[in-house]
Amino acid sequence: MASSVGLALCGQALVVRGGSRFLATSTASSDDGSLFTYDCSAAEKKVQENKGSVVRRCTALTFTASEQRVLVADKSGDVYSFSVLEPHECGRLELGHLSMLLDVALSPDDRFVLTADRDEKIRVSWAEAPHCIESFCLGHTEFVSRILVVPGHPELLLSSSGDCTLRLWEYKNGRQLYCCDLASLQEPAEPQGHKRFAVSRIVFWSQESCVALLCDCLPVVFVFHLSACRQQLVFKQQLKFPHHVWDIAFEEAQGLWVLQDCREAPLALWRPAGGQWQPVPDSAVSQRLCGYLQGSWAVLEGSATVDDGFCGLYKATFDNMSSYLKKKEERLHQQQEKKRQRSPPLAAPGRTKKTRPGRAALGC
């Protein structure tokens, strides 16, 4: 369910994905301006490739904290693990759901595997014995689109869903700490306010304890402050954009990078100033990064049109009761109409009853 266009940051290394092509560069002002491009479709094919196969299409993946294994969730609801150190080793089936998996995460100590599925559930399983379930985080009423174990707070979990809510959990005991209805945060004037939407990205900024949410069909980013001691989220601001936002990522030393569908300014940097989030004026670094993306704009634009978001994951509801009641009302109306036609008309008030000829009317 991830978009074909993505953004990732590791330290000062910035990577933009467009389909099968990856663009990597640095956000450091002292960088020499080098750009690394890797095209998976044109990569050299080796006789023995270091690859692993899954039965169904991959929907999410994550590395263990030790970086020795990678967990892959697929469309059929299974999670496989592959060894990074032994790339020729076959994948090992770890656990399975009865519905499609949309996201997978690991606790920082690699003890627990957290999985989110289409049937509203978040499952917490033991990594060493995945058949042993520690807890369920239940409360969402639609598919769970994203989960994130909060960096720096290993006991807390953030989750989002097609029910337009953001929830905070103590995932080891399945206890919900906070729930926010994102639909209520939208301004009344928003034309998309009546539409359903789901969060496609959850990112956390440890420096300011900020949570940023990107939705799949809204040109806005919701910003929250996480109060770990109070175990709650405080809504701070809604960042609006004139163009569709593809992805977001935090850089600890800079702020929030926003990748958007705008050729003139495909990459924008936002940071808090005076209690409000503001776009940072163009700098030499941002101009250099935008120049790289503009040179590969055809790849980004073409890849973005392939993604359809979460539209096909909502539960289909069938209201056969209203049609039944309507037909029942029509049937009763027809019966009353036939009954009225069969019955003789009532005599008008004040008129005397006619007598047969030759028979005198009875007197008193």
Keywords:
single chain; 364 residues; mainly beta; Methylamine Dehydrogenase, Chain H; four-stranded antiparallel sheet; 40% strand; globular; WD repeat; WD40/YVTN_repeat-like_dom_sf; WD40_rpt; repeat; WD40_repeat_dom_sf
What do you see in this structure?
With 364 residues, the chain is mainly β. It has a domain at 55-206: YVTN repeat-like/Quinoprotein amine dehydrogenase (Methylamine Dehydrogenase, Chain H). 12% of the residues lie in helices and 40% in strands. The chain is built from 3 helices and 24 strands. It has helices at 284-295, 297-304, 320-342, and strands at residues 5-10, 13-18, 21-26, 36-39, 58-63, 69-74, 78-83, 92-96, 101-106, 112-117, 122-126, 133-137, 144-149, 156-161, 165-170, 175-181, 199-205, 210-215, 220-227, 232-240, 245-251, 255-260, 267-273, 276-279. The strands form 6 sheets. A 4-stranded antiparallel β-sheet has the order 1-2-3-4. A 4-stranded antiparallel β-sheet has the order 5-6-7-8, with no helix packed on it. Required for the formation of N(7)-methylguanine at position 46 (m7G46) in tRNA. In the complex, it is required to stabilize and induce conformational changes of the catalytic subunit.
Q: What form results from the Cα inertia axes? A: globular
* Amount of helix: 10-25%
Average pLDDT rating: 85
CATH architecture name of one domain = 7 Propeller
CATH class annotation of one domain: Mainly Beta
Name the strands of the widest sheet in spatial order: 1-2-3-4
Computed Rg? 31 Å
Report the sheet-strand fraction: 35-45%
Classified in CATH, the superfamily of one domain is: YVTN repeat-like/Quinoprotein amine dehydrogenase
